[in-house]
Amino acid sequence: MTYIKALYNQKVFLILVALILFASLFAPYFLTLGNIFNLLMEISIYGIMAFAMTFVILNGEFDLSIGAVMAFSGIFLATISQHMNILLAILLTVLLGAIIGSIIGILVSYFGFNSFIVTLCAMFFYNGLALKVSDGRPIMIMDPILNWIGNGYFLFIPNLVWIFIILFAAADYILRKTKYGRNIYAVGGDQKVALLTGISVKFYKTSVFVISGACAAIAGILLTGMLNAASPFVGGAAALTVISSVVIGGTSLSGGEGGVKQTIMGLLILGILDNSLALLNVDSFYQTLIQGCLLVLVISWDYYSRNVKVLKSVLY
What we know:
The strands form 2 sheets. The chain has a two-stranded antiparallel sheet with strand order 1-4. A two-stranded antiparallel ribbon has the order 2-3. The two termini are 21 Å apart. Helix content is 77%, strand content 3%. The chain has helices at residues 2-9, 11-26, 33-58, 66-80, 86-109, 115-134, 144-151, 159-177, 179-189, 191-196, 201-227, 238-249, 260-279, 284-315, and strands spanning 139-140, 153-154, 157-158, 229-230. A hairpin with a 2-residue loop joins strand 2 (153-154) and strand 3. 43% of the residues are buried. It has one domain: ABC transporter involved in vitamin B12 uptake, BtuC. It is globular, with a radius of gyration of 20 Å. The protein is mostly helical. Helix 3 crosses helix 13 (260-279) and helix 5 (86-109) packs antiparallel against helix 11 (201-227).
């Protein structure tokens, strides 16, 4: 019984292992070095946003604007870099993302607006702003420093992957080892209890949106460097992909449960699923359909698990 329970607790990991075995056996070129690097680079862009989204969802909130902020940040960088040093432009772009996140956080925390509604409005606003500033066209940017960041290698590993690893380590350390991280869990678990223990709920709710905005800007910078262009269309489905990765990994939509290690597994599941289906020449429509079905199953299971815990607490 204990062995079965242990397997149940590792169900996401077992799904990931099964998916890797399936891809290795049936998807041609899946295990080639070039494909693995391409997979990791793609995961890295979404992963940086997914780490930030983990903070937001652990806090019991949503951020649907993260993809739009990523797209607008890329356009902003490509525009201002024509008039200043690229490193200063990068710094200002990250600062812009943090400011956008702080505005959203203040509206949610201090004015009591629903995060779903606020970030949905922000998504439309920044998508529209990106289209307006770029005239609906990609903006080319051929800076050697930015190109090296997006396409260069260090110790035979892509720079994007190094940045992904560094931000993962930082996020995991913050959530597991710091007072800030413990309070994030506390606020997401029960806001009323957190308030009674003296935790500034408004501060922590605002801060996670600042992190989300800054990470969206970093993702926009990295994607612009990788493509040597900024496009207003790149953020379309990014928010749903990022949220899917966090939830499929095992972070609860209700807040207070999960972490970036679980998010890593969710990212790998979605990334390997998309990659292997593409290698098998499966139509993109079916790829999206499978991802949607998987998300529905995970959300349903999360809802069921929550209800079972509540029922057990009442009965026992």
